[in-house]
Automatic annotation (TrEMBL):
Gene name of the encoded protein: LOC104967612
Polar residues compositional bias, start-end: 29-38
InterPro entries tied to this protein: ADH-like_N, ER, GroES-like_sf, NAD(P)-bd_dom_sf, SV-ATPase_mito-regulator
Protein name: Synaptic vesicle membrane protein VAT-1 homolog
Entry-linked SMART domains: PKS_ER (SM00829)
Source organism per UniProt: Notothenia coriiceps
Gene Ontology cellular component list: mitochondrial outer membrane
GO MF terms held by the record: oxidoreductase activity
Length: 426
């Protein structure tokens, strides 16, 4: 999962974060204030629809706004018309103030997307107008037009759809780096992945199939078992009605070689207990902390109380390993670039293919977030910046497009960029 600073060119009202922040997984967009670089994009102000987190809390804090601003490109930047964006669990945590790398509101959400380059800045040699690209940035993707560093873009294979492009970066980078860099997956090994029907779960399952004789245990609700089995999960387990530890033991009494844990709390302890000697537990999330629309202090306390506690002696005596993974804290930009190259090659070879669960227009952001929060999705949930056509507009007004409070408008008026709230259609 990624998060971090809002790209300065997209949200000029955000203050620069302190220097002690961890290094980014991908290069930050250069600051534009005081830049002497010539303007390559049109100087004409653009009206851009964006999904903005206006405060911590429920779905009503994510609002659809129109931002009127000048788009100026510094050297090494490109301007992209966004066609599709990926929704991640990080956005749900960020909405509740639980994602430590996200700047304080107001901030435009979104870390990954795909689109078409409409303008390039100076010193951009390997990108041109018209290129279809995948983008990976700190935040600010949930808007119609985005300015990013050219190094944060990746050329899309010709056969790849924009929805697939937006579904690839965060989930597949996370899955690949955990399996092959941290866990060193080899033929004949066994893997337990929770939330096997989610974006990362699908990516893990597909990548495991690129290695011979890998057994995949996947937890998911019973209604999803047929689909995840077709996708490559060897042993689907209904975590809602059965004890997955007991179910794994029935099939593999000695346990498994790799456990991928996005849950945290007591599930991390269970995962450690399931490891074979020389096995690896990788913790990459804390979904157990997100139990409702708003921050749940009881859930946080429960997760903290039940967290795994180990001594070095116990690790030695059990011959087990524990590893953490967070895409947002990886400082090696070249590792990200190389891994994206491998993933795009695997896609072109037909060995991986993002599964798109559903697509929602920006006006329907609440519905999209609810679907992911309630674990209804099988694969990736996609957000579409393009305005919903009149005949498609739902009868009821979705929460994200409510009028912005006057206090928020007053704050925005003090900034260089002006924003106005989009009124609900229909």
């Amino acid at each position: 999962m990624m998060s971090g600073e809002e790209a300065p060119t997209l949200q000029p009202e955000q203050e620069k974060q302190p220097d002690e922040e961890p290094p980014p997984a991908v290069s930050e967009a250069p600051q534009q204030s005081g830049s002497s670089s010539p303007v390559v994009a049109e100087e004409k102000p653009l009206s851009i629809r964006a999904l903005v987190l206006t405060g911590y809390g429920g779905y009503d804090k994510v609002k659809l706004q129109v931002k009127t601003q000048k788009q100026q490109l510094a050297a090494g930047e490109v301007l992209v018309r966004v066609k599709a964006c990926g929704l991640n669990f990080a956005e749900l945590m960020g909405k509740q103030g639980l994602y430590e790398l996200l700047p304080p509101p107001p901030v435009t959400l979104g870390m990954e997307g795909s689109g078409v380059i409409e303008a390039v800045g100076e010193d951009v040699k390997d990108r041109k107008v018209g290129d279809r690209v995948i983008m990976l940035i700190r935040s600010g993707m949930y808007q119609e037009v985005v300015v990013v560093a050219a190094g944060n873009t990746f050329l899309m294979p010709e056969q790849m759809s924009f929805e697939e492009g937006a579904a690839l970066p965060v989930n597949y980078l996370t899955a690949y780096l955990m399996l092959f860099e941290s866990a060193n997956l080899k033929p004949g090994k066994s893997v337990l992945v929770h939330m096997a029907a989610g974006g990362v779960g699908v990516a893990v399952t597909q990548l495991c199939q690129t290695v011979p004789d890998v057994t995949v245990f996947g937890t998911a609700s019973a209604s999803k078992h047929e689909i995840i089995s077709q996708g490559g999960v060897t042993h689907p387990i209904d975590y809602r009605t059965k004890d997955y530890v007991e179910e794994v033991r029935k099939i593999s009494p000695k346990g498994v070689d790799i456990v991928l844990d996005p849950l945290g709390g007591s599930d991390t302890q269970k995962g450690f207990s399931l490891l074979k000697p020389l096995g690896m537990l990788i913790v990459f999330g804390a979904a157990n902390c997100v139990t409702g629309q708003k921050k749940n202090l009881l859930a946080l306390a429960k997760s903290w109380y039940n967290q795994l506690s180990l001594s070095m002696l116990k690790l030695m005596q059990t011959n087990k390993g524990v590893c953490g993974f967070h895409l947002g804290y990886i400082p090696d930009e070249q590792l990200i670039v190389r891994t994206m190259g491998k993933l795009l090659e695997l896609y072109s070879q037909g060995k991986i293919k993002p599964r798109i669960d559903s697509c929602y227009h920006f006006e329907e952001a609440t519905d999209a977030m609810k679907r992911m929060h309630e674990r209804q999705n099988i694969g990736k949930v996609i957000l579409l910046p393009e305005a919903k056509k009149e005949e498609e507009v739902p009868k009821s007004n979705p929460e994200p497009v409510e009028n912005v409070e006057k206090t928020e408008a007053a704050v925005n008026e003090k900034k260089e960029e002006t924003t106005e709230e989009v009124k609900a259609e229909g």
